[in-house]
Amino acid sequence: MFRILVEEKRWISEQRFLHALSYCMLLPGPEAQQLATYVGWLLHGTRGGLIAGLLFIMPGVLAMMALSFVYVIWQQHPLLDGVFLGLKAAVIVLVLEALVRIGRRALGSPRARVLALFSFVAIAVLQVPFPFIVLGAGVMGYLLPRDVRNVAASSSAVGAAYGVAVPVTDEGTLKQAVPTARRALRLLAVWLPIWFVPVLLAGWLAGLGHVFTQMGIFFSQMAVVTFGGAYAALSYVAQQAVESFAWITPAQMMDGLGLAESTPGPLILVLQFVGFLAGYQGAGADAPLLAGVIGALMTVWVTFVPCFLWIFLGAPYVEALRGNARLTSALDAIMAAVVGVIANLALWFTLHVLFARHTTHGLPMLDSVQWIPAALTTTALLLTFVLRRGLGLTLLICAVLGAATLWLPG
Questions:
Q1: What is the pTM of this model?
Q2: What distance in Å separates the CA atoms of residue 295 and residue 273, rounded to the nearest whole number?
Q3: Which residues lie closer than 8 Å to 95 by C-beta, 6 or more apart?
Q4: DSSP readout, 277-322?
Q5: In 175-262, which ranges are continuous DSSP H helix?
């Protein structure tokens, strides 16, 4: 996005791009989609923000919807089983790679490493809900600030890698809005109904206990607590969707992440797959595919509509947020806690892929190790960390090898 928006198109300056990025990193939800919306708003106001934000996610939404249909219709086909076996192995390594990448950036101090450890124990052993972990880390970072650089300043290496480009857009023509209480109330009066009407409608027509209503409420909560990106959110989703609500199985969660990694758009679209299967399996006795589509659309709606609200409401306040040492410290603390959450996600995926049976406490039974998934996971590890192959090639090779296991004896 930096290369195209700043260097090639030269629609905005490097400083404005990094300024927008620093704000989006402070928000819950998918920061890439929010950054696209923010730049669209800067250039053409609300209309530009809507167009940019929607076009950023629509290709991925359509691709994931099509793949969800393929998955439920042909999921019993042996060849597809083999492909997903390979994808599951690749997903373990992709999460590990994300853990290493984020850990290098977030664990630069003893305090951060202690926070990550406490976060891992809290979610893996004590089963503390993800929102409380994020909230606790953020409060601690805010109340006990340390000397940190501003998020935008720490991101300046992005601009340095490409040099400085002179924007073709006059800075004076970029969107400006006075942050007033009246403006904020007007935006809330518009966007809160847009956000919650589908959820309220589902509750009125189907009842509070219906899967559509439960999904609307649950993923609305996700929209306000998913600091740290998709990998951090997935640990909480896996905990709730698999264990609490029983919408999907651990294997299906792994399959969804593999599909999301192979489609355009933000990784958070794995939530759309979860919504599709929850509707298909939990509310689709008469028309399962239609129920799956409704579940997927409900999930996408309550995941991305709040992103537009955060940008349109908060953009005028960005200057006040930028450079605030306490807020930057809170963000650093959250990112450290997120490392522990992602470590739990990696462990959860590994145990469910490599071992066929588990104790009532979730610990693996060592005699149930599955050697083919273990071999595929080792292959993915070599491709990613030794040979330094990219995401697409790793997924492709693991999927092909997984399909090839169908011809193994036994």
A1: 0.69
A2: 9
A3: 231, 342, 345, 346, 349
A4: HHHHHHS-SS-HHHHHHHHHHHHHHHHHHHHHHHHHHHGGGHHHHT
A5: 181-206, 211-225, 230-237, 250-261
What is the secondary structure of 110-165 as a DSSP string?
HHHHHHHHHHHHHHHTS---HHHHHHHHHHHHHHS------HHHHTHHHHHHH---
Amino acid at 26: L
CA distance 253 to 251: 5
User: Which tokens go with 54?
Assistant: 């929607």
Single-letter amino acid code for the residue at 353: V
What phi and psi, each to the nearest 5 degrees, are found at residue 108? -85, -5
3-state class (DSSP) for residue 12? coil
What is the C-alpha to C-alpha distance for residues 152 and 156, in angstroms, rounded to an integer?
6
Nearest CA among 70, 57, 29, 55 for reference residue 276: 70
What type of residue sits at position 390?
G
What is 343-363 written as a DSSP string?
HHHHHHHHHHHHBS-B-TTS-
Tens digit of pLDDT for each residue in 50-76? 999 999 999 889 989 998 998 888 776
CA separation, residue 198 to residues 226, 241, 303 (Å)? 21, 20, 12
Amino acid making up residue 395: L
Enumerate residue ranges in the chain where pLDDT < 50. Answer: 148-162
174: its two tokens: 């970029």
CA angle, residues 363, 367, 368, in degrees to nearest 5? 70
Please check whether residue 24 is in contact with residue 31, taking contact to mean a CB–CB distance below 8 angstroms.
Answer: yes
Sequence-ordered list of residues with C-beta below 8 angstroms from that of 221, at least 6 positions apart, any chain: 131
Tokens of 160: 């340095």
Q: Mapping DSSP to helix (H, G, I), strand (E, B) and coil, where does residue 369 land?
A: strand
C-alpha distances (whole Å) from 351 to each of 247, 251, 253, 358, 379 are: 20, 11, 13, 8, 17
Q: What is the residue type of 292?
A: G
Q: Which residues of 211-247 are buried (b: 16+ CB within 10 A; e: fewer)?
A: bbbbbbbbbbbbbebbbbbbbbbbbbbbbbbbeeeeb
pLDDT per position as a tens digit, 167-221: 666 565 566 667 788 889 999 999 999 999 999 999 999 888 899 999 999 999 8
Residue with tokens 């997120």: 338
